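U., I forgot to send this yesterday:
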Amino acid sequence: MPRVKRGTTHVKKRRKLLAKTKGYKWGRKKLIKVAKTAVLKAGVHAYTDRRRKKRTSRALWQIKISAFVKSHDLSYSKFIDLLKKANVEVDRKILADLAVNHPAALENLLKKVKK
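Result:
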């Protein structure tokens, strides 16, 4: 069997790896061994942070809704309970957007739910 030289493949693989580490500090951007672990860890952090992003977004929505509802002498939990009892299926993301950008619309919803 003829001998296979893998120089180009090897170089391409390393070049691709180092392209991913562009902008990193110190040896993490230019040393292959260190760059490999840096890319691996970056991928892990990216994965977990994509999930964490959803948690922090929901927490922010709750804070925005709570701030609006408190100005109308009601607690967040009671407001959500009133929405559920009135069978209003509006998610927290939309409620938070209404609280910030269209407070009059949310005020109308609040009045409707209180009845």
